[in-house]
Amino acid sequence: MMKFVFYFTVISTVIFPLGKCYSEEKNVNNNMIINAPFENFERKFKPDWKDLDTRQLPKWYDDAKIGIFLHWGLYCVPGYHSEWFWAYWKGGDKEIVKFMADNYPPGFTYQDFAPMFKAEFFNASDFAELFLKSGAKYVVLTSKHHEGYTLFPSKRSFSWNSVETGPHRDLVGELSEAVRQKGLKFGVYHSLYEWYNPIYLEDKKANFTTRHYAESKLWPDLKQLVNDYKPSVIWSDGDWEANDTYWKSTDLLAWLYNDSPVKDEIVVNDRWGIGTSCKHGDFYNCADRYNPGKLQNHKWENAFTMDLTSWGYRRNMAIQDVMSIDKFLFHVISTVSCGGNALINVGPTKEGTIAPIFAERLLELGQWLKVNGEGIYESSPWMSQNDTFNHFVWYTCRKQQYNAYRPTARPKKSDTVTAIYAFFLKWPSNNNDMLVIADITKYLQKGNWQVNVLGYDEPLRWETTNTGKTKIYLPRIEKVKSKHAWTLKFKPRQ
């Protein structure tokens, strides 16, 4: 991931009856957008940020909401510290230097880990089945991290790949096929740079006035990935040492959008050179584990880890290092409420398995989404995100129109909203199971609404107060299917 510091439901349809609770939209040319048609496939994009930034977001990505991230590489063999193991070791980190001295023979190199990466238990179909059960809609695999070792038979890696050394298998190919067979989208993470590639280091030494690495290694690898595996996502990383002009990022994106075999559905993130993060790309990451807690103007993604310390697998991970299911659901719900997608990271082992605690969390998420998913998938941000009175409550809504220019926008006057959802992360502690919220009140007072809690069949009794609050009388908690977070559905009556 990013640089570390070290030494070196279709419901009853009504027109949105909520008075002035809407916002108007303008595109980058300051023109009004009213249900604009999807135009990506009818034009050619120029290789400059101003034009590339006008591309509309393919709808599948905004609808998906939930993805799985896999950080898998040679760093899972030592399974210690993090996926930055090699860089910290070379940088003289005392903890890692001692670990290597205590556990490996003198002269042992990072390359010597490669034969130990066997992935002998890896079954791509089992992985895909777990991800399907988790409720995820897309999967992103590290085709190459900063170490340079690729999980596909790179024609430019010269034996530093999973087909020629280690598992002797095309891990990208196996997983991409298995994931698609389950109906999920497949994507690849790819690091732009490589820590110790001598060609890259020569370009770096020349202050990136030469582009030998970018032209002879990076571009061929990326084009091979796109042409051979046809990913729906390219998740770029390792961009912080050179400007986008060195990487020729705009040329690559123009090719992806105009002429590649995935031009109709590809989405890319924002890590394409110094200063591009949170400024350019189909969706923004901005930072690792980015969850701003408020609505963003551009589609974004919260890539976060269940292991609170590392993206790669750690053999010495303790149970307290693993995110609890309550915290896990908080990140999913708050992210989607604010217009983002949740990309949930798992670090597989060198044997090609997923730790049972990670699998358990993913299955718990899947069970939760079976009950509450209609407020997550294909949802849009509502007028409010986090309730101003009850900070345990987050909102989404469903609307018929897709805003391809600004998927994160609040509902407009012309939008048809079919339901509003309020997720509450804490069951009320009062004796009568009464939930009190505020931001929905003025809308409830203007219409005729039915209120349900998902996972319970009967409508709920509710009332508004003259102090701007809404009281919702919940059933007993044991009668509701969800066990950790719950969803209210506000449906306008016909």
UniProtKB/TrEMBL annotation:
Protein's UniProt keywords contain Glycoprotein: yes
UniProtKB keywords: Glycoprotein, Glycosidase, Hydrolase, Signal
Keyword Aminoacyl-tRNA synthetase annotated: no
Record-listed E.C. numbers: 3.2.1.51
Family: Belongs to the glycosyl hydrolase 29 family.
Domain of life: Eukaryota
GO biological process per UniProt: fucose metabolic process; glycoside catabolic process
Residues annotated as domain Alpha-L-fucosidase C-terminal: 385-490
Pfam family membership, one: Alpha_L_fucos
InterPro entries listed in its UniProt record: FUC_metazoa-typ, Fucosidase_C, GH, Glyco_hydro_29, Glyco_hydro_29_N, Glyco_hydro_b
Function: Alpha-L-fucosidase is responsible for hydrolyzing the alpha-1,6-linked fucose joined to the reducing-end N-acetylglucosamine of the carbohydrate moieties of glycoproteins.
Organism encoding this protein: Diatraea saccharalis (sugarcane borer)
The name this protein goes by in its record: Putative alpha-L-fucosidase
Gene Ontology molecular function: alpha-L-fucosidase activity
GO cellular component: lysosome
Signal sequence coordinates: 1-23
SUPFAM superfamilies: (Trans)glycosidases
Glycoside hydrolase family 29 N-terminal domain location: 40-374
